[in-house]
Structures are given as C-alpha cells and as structure tokens.
Fold this protein.
Amino acid sequence: MAKVKVAVLASGRGSNFKAIQEHIKAGRCDAEIKVLITNNPDAPAISIAKDNKIPVEIIDKSGFPDREKMDERIKELLDRYGAELVVLAGYMLILKGRKLLESYKNRIINIHPALLPAFPGATAQKDAFEYGVKVSGVTIHFVDESLDAGPIIYQEAVDISDCKSAEETAAKILKTEHKAYAKVVDSFSKGHYAVEGRRARFVPSS
Amino acid sequence: MAKVKVAVLASGRGSNFKAIQEHIKAGRCDAEIKVLITNNPDAPAISIAKDNKIPVEIIDKSGFPDREKMDERIKELLDRYGAELVVLAGYMLILKGRKLLESYKNRIINIHPALLPAFPGATAQKDAFEYGVKVSGVTIHFVDESLDAGPIIYQEAVDISDCKSAEETAAKILKTEHKAYAKVVDSFSKGHYAVEGRRARFVPSS
C-alpha cells in the first residue's frame, strides 16, 4: 500500500501530531507527514516538526485581508506539498475558505474529545464531566462548513465514570485520541470513506 | 441483602419489564416487582405481569381532572405497595406531579436508548442512525421535572457502526438495555446513589 501524504494543521502543543508521528515511526501508521502548517509562530508543535525534519509553514493571520484569503493560502500550500489528507491537530481557527473546503472535501479530518453530537465546542471534556455522563469518548469527523458537525468517520467510547475532575477526564480521553487518530490516518492508506447523507462508510481499496 | 421493592410503570409491550423479571427469576437481580402500574388497559405488559402473578393497577387518564391529580394517584399506589424504586419501562407519559417527584426523588429511574445528552426524545435510535454516529448506547437516569435530563446513573456504549437501518440500530441497543436495566435495578439492593450537582455516584451499603 502507498503511504498517505498528510498535512498537519496545528496551533498549539500538537500532542496528536506527535502521537501520529510516533505511530508512523513505529510502523503502525502508513502515512508520511509532508508539512506542518501553523498559524502560531510560537506553537510547540513546531519543534516536534523540526525534530522529525518535517517542513513548517507559518501563516500569519494579520498578513491576510480576510479568512477566505488566508484559507486560500493554506490551500496553495496543501497543493504544493501534495497533501492527500489534511489532519487538524488542535488547529484553533475554523476553516472557512470555500475553495479550500471544496477542493479538499472529505479529505480534511478533525478529532473532537467527546462523542459528538454531545458536547461540541472548545470545552468538551469539562462539559461532559460537569454534565455527569459516565461514557464520553472521541469523534473523528470530516471538516465542512459546519462546526463540529461534519460526517463522522470514527468514534470510540471512553468510560469516565471514575474520573474525579475535568482534568482527569481530559487526560483519559487524550490517551484514546492519540491511538484513534493514528488508526484513522492509517485507514486512508487502505481505502477511502464514502459519504452518503451524513453517514460515512469505509471502502477498502481494491 | 434485602431485595429492593420495585414498582414498574409501563404503557406498551414492556420488554424491559419482562427482561428485569427474567433476571430476577434467574437470580441475577435482587429485586421484587410489587406492582405494575399502567395508563393503558391494552398494554401487552399486563399479560407479563399476570404470567408472573404481579398485581396490575390501571390508571385511566380520563378519570382525573389533570396530570397533577393523576400523578398523586400514582404516588398513593407506590406508597401502598411499599415501592422503594420506581422503574419506568416504556411509560409514555411524562411524570409531572410535584408531590410524586418530591416524595420519590432519586428513586424513579428511566432508561433511554442513546447516550444522553445526545439524542433525547422519542426517536433516539432513528435520530442516531440518521446522524451517522458510530457509537450510541444506553442511559439510565433519575427522573426529575426535566425531560431526559435527570442525573445519570449508568451509561453503556453500543457500537452501531455496522447497523444498516434504524430498526437494526434499535434492536442492537435494546439487547444492551435489557441487561443494563436489570444490573442497575440490582444495584439498588446493594447501595444507593449520592447525587452531587448533576453527578450521581454509587455508595455501597455498609
């Protein structure tokens, strides 16, 4: 099987980026990260890229008249690096560029630390803990113009009934995120996802 | 341990009622169902009760001026049969009586065929299937004045990624419902649930 060519977008620590790269190095994820694109020149993710000799592209929001133009620049970079799959790993801006979303339709994925549609938004683990759910989890979904509501590729439940705080909940879910994201990235080297209505179904390469 | 004295409220087929009764007979659920209360004189649940020599009380909504009075009648029956735990098993009316809800606070439980707060309401399995989630499940929660939003006692995930229809989804979740509900009813013979904020925590009897 050919390795899937991946671009990672991250704004912060990039712990999922790091986890995927480690799975790749361990031979458990048939992918090659061609570029890290970040909007944050101070993102710790940058040093992970440098440690692994992955090119880094920094995009400064202030250099663009609007988000449409900024996302066009992202699209140009994805094209240039030959990205087949775009992996959001803590990218804190919502992708809004129409050209980007159309050109990379069903090729941009995000991970969310809850079982969507429960607990969307930026404080999912805290929200789940405070709601008192016993089961939360991880959702990996395609990114479209909606917020946290693109077609779901993969979900995994995490038992949080013993968690004593929002922080403990987040830490437990993060462990599942790291494995799940690498597994899903790997799946793109072995097939694709057919999206019918809102339902995504894996179709292995023949 | 003493058996927990249960009243079941059902309006329809009562498949969860039947499952709990079977677990009791098999010695896997330390409970005794003292009465079936139904608002539907044609409910198939009635014959399950009769087969098991469980008294049946039929409450006709039209016989009461309002729901407050009807729920007062339910409270009287619960008191008379000495119910320690009230189990809703497909009871299609929302409990609204203030006296009933206060007197039996944290002693009325309901089962919902989804991982709340995702997919509340009467068509949870269909909604989950159509949304395209890969993981749904079962929630058992205390009943309060809210709809499907009382403190959660128990949740169990069900992988529905292979389900091909809403019906298949419902059937798969129902199997988990039957086991989970009997397990939670049994837990009330071994302790109680402390509710702090929205979070419910099992406290074993000393």
Notes: Strands of chain A lie at 4-10, 31-38, 56-58, 85-88, 108-112, 135-142, 152-159, 191-196, 199-204.
